[in-house]
Amino acid sequence: MKTNKLLKLLKQNGWYLYRHGGNHDIWTNEIYFVPIPRHPKIKENLAKSIIKKYRLIK
């Protein structure tokens, strides 16, 4: 999955960039903090795990 697609999904669900880490960006919704790798593509299993865990698709 492309990183931009996952970030767009996060933004649509009220998440925002909290800070830049060393190799990851930290995104939050004020309750959870999720590290997102700074790569053009994210492994499909990681993206699915984030979407499922934080219920990003309704």
3D structure, described in words:
This protein has a three-stranded antiparallel sheet with strand order 1-2-3, with helices on one face. The chain has helices at 3-12, 44-53; strands at residues 16-20, 24-28, 33-37. The model has no long low-confidence stretch (mean pLDDT 95). The longest helix has 10 residues, at 3-12. The chain has 58 residues and is of the alpha+beta class. β1 (16-20) and β2 (24-28) form a beta hairpin. It has two helices and three strands, in the order αβββα. The protein is globular, with a radius of gyration of 10 Å.
Number of strands: 3
What integer value in Å does the Rg equal?
Answer: 10 Å
Provide the helix percentage: 25-40%
Residue-averaged pLDDT: 95
Sequence of secondary-structure elements: HEEEH
Contiguous uncertain segments of 5+ residues? none
Largest sheet features: 3 strands, antiparallel
The number of helical runs is 2
How do the strands line up in the largest sheet?
A: 1-2-3
Distance between the termini: 19 Å
Shape: globular
SS-based structural class? alpha+beta
- Amount of beta strand: 25-35%
What does the secondary structure layout of this molecule look like, with pairings?
Elements: H1 3-12, E1 16-20, E2 24-28, E3 33-37, H2 44-53
Antiparallel strand pairs: 1-2, 2-3
In short:
This protein has helices at 3-12, 44-53; strands at residues 16-20, 24-28, 33-37.
